[in-house]
Write a structure and sequence with these properties.
The chain has about 350 residues and is an all-alpha fold. It contains 17 helices and no strands.
Length: about 350
Amino acid sequence: AALDPTQLQTIVGRAQLALGKSTEAASTLFTAWREARDEQQATQAAVELARLFWQRGSLDLAAGVLEKEWHRVGADEARRARVAKERGALGFEQGDLAGARDWWTQAAKLAERCGARALQGRCEMNLGVVFNVEGQRARALEAYAAASPLLEEDAPGLALLAHNVAISLDELGRHDEALVVFGEVLEMAASASEIRLGAMARCHRARLLAALGRHGEAQDDARNAQEVFGRLGDVAGLGDAHKLLGIIARAQGQRSVAETYLRRAVQQLTKAKVKLGAAEALEELAQLAEGSAARFYLQEALALYVEIGAVDRADAIRQRLASARSGERVAATPASSG
């Protein structure tokens, strides 16, 4: 069957974004959304446009698109499920774990009623991501296992699921298993043409490789991700890559280089309102500072962890601050891949 104009414009928008033409992609997707005659295609265009906005750090614009589309879809449960899923993703990016959980739970229920198995699977998987950030690693893996059969016919969804499993394995200390799964994720992402996911996986693998002392490999992954995110105009992704390059430089004793990367990461992740990533970069900056400067960075990171509900990370920083007040030098909190 021939593609309708909105569907074609949405595909063109994706291609423009993949080629690094984010401004042109935004214009194409906005036109597709505004002029759509098919309601399902209108919602798809809105979702794609919102994702583009938040990847470029314009979370308010993304929220505005999704809010408007939420009211446009009315009682159509299939469309409501898709918009609710994206509103959950936006809330997660902003560090609102409770809001993300509510939207994803609502979306999962709507998707189940509509028989949209892949969409339901993605929502169940995303709820596992919330568990992971909250420090409930085993519960996160249980959620991923429940999502897996629902994603059987969604190749990009399975690749993302494998990516999330690898992160949880890393944080559970099962590093060898995590490295194997990250390798599988890169293959799956390439097969599904999921360029951004491949860059995300390289960032997370870079952190693990750096922690294992494999700095050359870690740097290669982080620089590859930096190039991809830069081409996509993905501010949050660039912040994550720069954070990793800073971590690697610090491990190699390149303190000034590390500080430059980490300050850039804080700026980019703060602009993109990615509170978890900004907190991690601040925590890393504390390792390069001493005295009141180190305490300042830790207190800023603590405030962000508390705000998003990352309980285990907040507790670890409180312990470090308490030890610092008693005159002890405390090792860094283990880097987390989430």
